[in-house]
Amino acid sequence: MATPVLVPLTKWYLRKERRYSHAGITVRVHPGVFHPGLFSSTGFLAEYLDEINVKDKAFLELGCGTGYLSIAAARRGAKVTASDLSAAAVENTKINAEKNDVSIRVLHSDLFTGIPAGTFDVIAINPPYYARNPESESELAWQCGEVFEYFCKLFRQLYGYMHQDTTVLMVLTLGCDLEKIFLIAKENGFEFELLKEKRVLFDERDFLYRVRLKS
To answer: Helices 41-49 and 68-75, interaxial angle, to 10°?
Structure first.
């Protein structure tokens, strides 16, 4: 979870390259790229990958950052596509995939815009969720637009990349406007199923959801 107070502190810390190692994976964190170890969301998704079978599955990470989660999925035998709107994140993921000796297709894409037509078995999303307009590339990981443009576009496009058995995973936090996000999903024919929740700093909680078509 990243509170509005912690975001500027994170930006200060990430003004130069850092490194992060966990579960046998070491990644470089380039300046301005989301750090997978400073907040719990990436780890929460990675933990869930241990509980599901992704071997030989077509796996997509939307908003890959350093590529940590994509590398974890590739190590479990998934056929991984990683995408990000940030050019810095795309380059960062390519470098980290090579350093960790895994094969990942990495794409520069605004959500699904730059992803070739096709469907995925698993789609993992750690979205930006603060209702502000990003003022720099580094803020793309945090700000979803003043009127939640990120989620409006996501739920308009998502169905075209799913088949009937696709698992769509999304991490959100108690500190974001959950009801607004749920409403946008509902208006586009989706609903949220809570899979897990996790207590994090300052008595906040992260939630792991499965996003599915409304029944």
So the answer is: 10
SS3 (DSSP) at 182: helix
Rounded to an integer, what distance in angstroms lies between the CA atom of residue 74 and that of residue 85?
21
Element (H, E) at 40: none
What's the pLDDT at 113? 96
80-106 residue pLDDT tens:
999 999 999 999 999 999 999 999 999
| Closest CA relative to residue 108, chosen from 71, 144, 81 | 81
Q: Write out pLDDT tens, residues 112-124.
A: 999 999 999 999 9
Residue ranges in 55-213 assigned as alpha helix (H): 68-75, 87-99, 149-157, 178-187
Q: Which domains can be identified in the chain, with CATH numbers?
A: 6-213 (3.40.50.150)
Query: Against a cut of 0.85, is the pTM above it?
Result: yes
